[in-house]
UniProtKB/TrEMBL annotation:
This is ArfGAP with dual PH domains 1. It comes from Macaca nemestrina. PANTHER family: ARF-GAP WITH DUAL PH DOMAIN-CONTAINING PROTEIN 1, ARF-GAP WITH DUAL PH DOMAIN-CONTAINING PROTEIN 1-LIKE PROTEIN. One of its GO terms (cellular component) is cytoplasm. SMART domains: ArfGap, PH. SUPFAM superfamilies: ArfGap/RecO-like zinc finger, PH domain-like. It comes from the Eukaryota. PROSITE patterns: ARFGAP (PS50115), PH_DOMAIN (PS50003). The gene is ADAP1. InterPro entries: Arf-GAP_dual-PH_domain, ARFGAP/RecO, ArfGAP_dom, ArfGAP_dom_sf, PH-like_dom_sf, PH1_ADAP, PH2_ADAP, PH_domain. Keywords: Cytoplasm, GTPase activation, Metal-binding, Repeat, Zinc, Zinc-finger.
Length: 374
């Protein structure tokens, strides 16, 4: 009898909608919540375990199932749960994937089932109001210490501002929503709630690193920034659909890590730098947590004369790491060295992705700026 019930649960897994995790979309979920009626992956099952008042989980393959639990799963399932718990998810709200950090997945699961934010839209006020202010821990540019700073996001002004003192009349920085990006970077920042915000100042990228002790608070900030970007883009591109705009709200970096680089004449030695590939901008920093890049390289498309090559030109010297990459641009060659072959392969793939993608009209303006940089 127990075997039959387990077999019945395994059969339910094959139903459309149940073949991927109900929360993050990972394939082949092998856990189930028998109080919510959903099939979930191992990673998300750990989060469900932390909210036992809402969700109780079992292994599909290893645990024993009773008749009532099997019937409950059969009459519910992932599609039914989605129809109920995700009926009013705002377009701008970030839906995590299997590769996203623990915090994003945890807050999505709590928002859905525990707080039921997507059944009752009034609960979405903290990130959909168009205005938000509060205190966040911000990393100091020069000393690396995190200090409490007041932040204000105002959609009406199209800006995120922060103030160095509570009584300060003028903000220390004004970051235009138009050029803002936010991405969770817990490992880099050294805090599970660490968020990196980048913006353009004088057409160069600036970074700030922030966190809040409360996970809900920092994810609400993240979604408030996405909401502000969404409403800005709706005005900027009046004919665009939500589906066109959502991918532009915030982006994760294509690749980050250490490489060595040399100067334009390729006569000086190679130096180790931290690189970040953000869309078509390849930036390099002395330290991963620097406020601004030492330099940026624009990577255009093959139609515009950009090529990525494995290895170095024959005469290259001065590199410590053995695995070379050459990026050929219309004006010059850039040489980089990777420590391992797998690093080289991943970087080449990231560069190739940019080179293979035709350039958008606005990217030609960015390219022109890079060419005329002093």
């Amino acid at each position: 009898m127990a075997k039959e019930r387990r077999r019945a649960v395994l059969e339910l897994l094959q139903r459309p909608g149940n073949t991927r995790c109900a929360d993050c979309g990972a394939p082949d979920p092998d856990w189930a919540s028998y109080t919510l009626g959903v099939f979930i992956c191992l990673s998300c099952s750990g989060i469900h375990r932390n909210i036992p008042q809402v969700s109780k989980v079992k292994s599909v393959r290893l645990d024993a199932w009773d008749e009532a639990q099997v019937e409950f799963l059969a009459s519910h399932g992932n599609d039914a749960a989605r129809a109920r718990f995700e009926s009013k998810v705002p377009s701008f709200y970030y839906r995590p994937t299997p590769s996203d950090c623990q915090l994003l997945r945890e807050q999505w699961i709590r928002a859905k089932y525990e707080r039921q934010e997507f059944i009752y839209p009034e609960k979405q006020e903290p990130y959909s109001a168009g205005y938000r202010e509060g205190f966040l821990w911000k990393r100091g540019r020069d000393n690396g210490q995190f200090l409490s700073r007041k932040f204000v996001l105002t959609e009406r002004e199209g800006a995120l501002k922060y103030f160095n003192r509570n009584d300060a009349k003028e903000p220390k920085a004004v970051m235009k929503i138009e050029h803002l990006n936010a991405t969770f970077q817990p490992a880099k920042i050294g805090h599970p709630h660490g968020l990196q915000v980048t913006y353009l100042k004088d057409n160069s990228t600036r970074n700030i690193f922030i966190y809040h002790e409360d996970g809900k608070e920092i994810v609400d900030w993240f979604n408030a920034l996405r909401a502000a970007r969404f409403h800005y883009l709706q005005v900027a591109f009046p004919g665009a659909s939500d589906a066109d705009l959502v991918p532009k709200l915030s982006r994760n970096y294509l690749k980050e890590g250490y490489m060595e680089k040399t100067g334009p004449k390729q006569t000086e030695g190679f130096r180790k730098r931290w690189f970040t590939m953000d869309d078509r901008r390849l930036m390099y920093f002395k330290d991963p947590l620097d406020a601004f890049a030492r330099g940026e390289v624009f990577i255009g498309s093959k139609e515009s004369g950009y090529t990525v090559l494995h290895g170095f030109p024959p005469s290259t010297q001065g590199h410590h790491w053995p695995h070379g990459i050459t990026i050929v641009t219309p004006d010059r060659k850039f040489l980089f060295a990777c420590e391992t072959e797998s690093d080289q392969r991943e970087w080449v793939a990231a560069f190739q992705k940019a080179v293979d993608r035709p350039m958008l009209p606005q990217e030609y303006a960015v390219e022109a700026h890079f060419k005329h940089k002093p």
